[in-house]
Write a structure and sequence with these properties.
This protein is mainly β and 675 residues long. The protein has four helices and 44 strands.
Amino acid sequence: MVDRLFSATKKKRFALSVFGMLILTVMFANCSSGGSDSGNSGGNDGGPVVTDAWDAPVGDLVQGVTLFDGWSDLRVLPAPVNVDGGWTDSAAISNDGKTLYFTYTRYSIADLIDGVGFTSTGPARPGMTGEAMKNFKATLENGAWVVQSQLPAPFNSASGTWESSLSPNAAEDLIIWSRWDSSLTKASLYYSYKQSDGTWTAAAALPSPINNSNCNNDNGFVVGSVSTGVDIYWESDRTDINCSAGGAKKHIYHSYFNAGTGLFSAVESVAGVNGTDPNDEDQQFFVTSDKKQAYWTAVRSSFYGLYTADLVGTAYMNARPVAHGTTSSPFTGKLTFLGEINVTETTQGWLAYFMCGIASRESGVSHGVHLSVCRMKKERTAAITEAKKINTSGWSDSPFISRDGQRLYFMYSRWDFAPWIKSGGTVSPVLAGPDRPGLNKNASNPWDESDIYVSTKQSDGTWGEPVNLGLNGAYGDASGMEFNSGNSFIWLRGNGTTNNLVTTTKTVSGTWGPIEDLGTDINLAGAIVDNPFITEDGNFLYFSSSRTGTVGSGGKDNWFSSKNSSGTWAVPVNLGVNFNAAGDEDQPFIPNGGSSSDFYWNSASGLIHCVSNGSTCTSTNIITFQGCDFAAEISMPDDGQTAYFGCGTLSTGRVKIMYSEKTASGTWGPAIPVD
C-alpha cells in the first residue's frame, strides 16, 4: 500500500540484531518445576482471599538479571513464602494469581551442588513431616501471603519420599505432580482427580510411555479437564519417543488424554519449543490455558534462562528470551540460576512467578546459590494494549485472509510512513507504533523494519492478538499468503539489496521447513518483484514486476508463471493489455484458491475487478467502498461474502486494514476497520 499511496518501490528490509550471551555451565539435574492454570485446589482450601494479585506483597529487587519482552520489576517474595535456609522451589501460580503452589525441603541446594551432601539449613514448614521435599501452597489473605500446612495425601506421601511440581488444571478436578525414586535421579508423573463426592482419588502414575523407569520424567503441566480431554506436557531425558533409555539432555513432550475413549495419544515432541542442537536442553514447560503462549527454561549455545514462543497453527514459533541471569563474575547478590516460570493475567497486566537462585559468594561451584520464589510484571500499558490490535499507530499493510476466513496475515512496522507519503518523500517516516512481540526492529532505518504477523479469529468473531509468523528474515518481509491448506506460505523477503519471492512448507512435525527462493527467472536481477498470488495447488503464480516487457511506458505490470514438471518456474509472461495499462498494475488476487473466474488487481484507476477466462477480461469495473479513499490488496474467503483490503486515506497518508461485507443486493457495504 505504501507504493500505492506514493508511487515508489516498497523497500521492506531490516537489520539483524545479534545477542552475545554466555551460557551458565552449572545445572542441577534434580531442580523441579510445576505449573498451574487454576484457582485454589489440592484438597486444602485456604481462608478468605481479599488482596488484588497485582498488589501482592513482594520484597527486594533482584540484581544481575536481564529481562526481555516487556517484563520488569523482578522481586523476591517475602516471608513466609521464602525463608532463610532450605530449598524453596517449583513455583506455580493460579489463574487469579491468589494461590501459589511450591515445593520445599529443609536441605540446602548449594551444598548438594557443591558436593557437600544433604545438610539441613532451613526451618520446618507448617505440618511438615521429615526433611524431604514436599508440596505446599500459599494464599493471599488480608494483604499477605499465608503458607498453608503441608498438602495432605494424595499430593504428598511417606515422609521420606520426595514430591514436587504440583500442577492443577483450570477445572480444579485434576492435578499432576512429580514423585522421585529413592536415588533422586528419576521422577515419575502422578495424578489425582476429584470425584463427584468432592474427594480426591489415590495417587496413580501416568501410563507408559509417559512414565518409564528408564528415564527421568518431571515437571508436568496440565491443561483441560477429565470430562472433556487433557493436554499433558512434561520434560524427559528420553533418547527416543518410547523412552527406551535416558540421555544427557532433557526436552519437552506432549500427550493428549481423550476423555471419550479413555486413551492417551502417542507421545510427541512439542514442535517449535525444543532446540535442535545436540547441546540444547529444554525444561519446565508452562502454557497458557488457551495454549497460545508457551514459556519454558532453555539452554542454548549463547543463552541460559527463560524463553517464550507463540502458537501459530499447530507449532510454536518465534522463540525468544524472557529472562537471562548472571553468567560471569561478580556473582554475589545476583541471579545465577532460574527456571520454572508460571504466568497469570490480571486486569493490570501479566504476573510471572519463577524460581530464582541468588548467589551468596564468589567461590564454589554453586556460588552459594539460595533458591527463592520471585515475581515480575508486564504492565498492560497503552502500548501493550495497542500491540494486541491489527491496526496501530505504526504501519499495518499487505493483508491476506485465509480461504476459511480464520487467519488474517499482514505486515507490520513501528514506522509511520504517512509523513513521507504526504510530503512526496521529503519528510522521513517517524517511529510511532508499539513494539509487537518478536518484531525485528531497526530504530535508524524505516526501510529495514517489517515482519509478517498473523491474527486468528476468535469464537466471538473478534481478531486475536497478532503473532509473529516466525519466518521473518534479516531484511524485511511483506505481502505473504498461505496456500496448500495452510501448509505452505509465499511472501516477499528482502536480502539487503533487493526483494525476492520465497516459499516454505511445513514439515511432518508442524514446523516450517527450509525457505526456497523461486529462482532467477522469477526473481530477476535489477527488476522489482512484488505482491505474489499463488494458486492453492502451488502450480501457478501471479505477481507484479517492473521487468522488461511492461505495457505502455513502464512501471509495474501483472505477470504470470507456471511450475514445470521438474519443479522449477517457467519464464514469466506479461498478462497483457487486458490486465495491464500504462501505469502501475499490481496486487493480483483470484478467489477460491485461484479457481474462480473473478480476477482482482490494483491500477492507477483504483481496485479493478473483471471476469476472466485466463486471457481476456469482461465485465470490468472499479471496486470502491464507502468510507475508504483508496482500497488495495484485496483478498476474500471462499464464500466471497467478505473482502479484506488495505484502505488508504489521502488526507492523512495513513493506511488501515479494513473489511467490507456484501449486501443482499450483491453490492459491497461500507469499509470497516478490522479492529
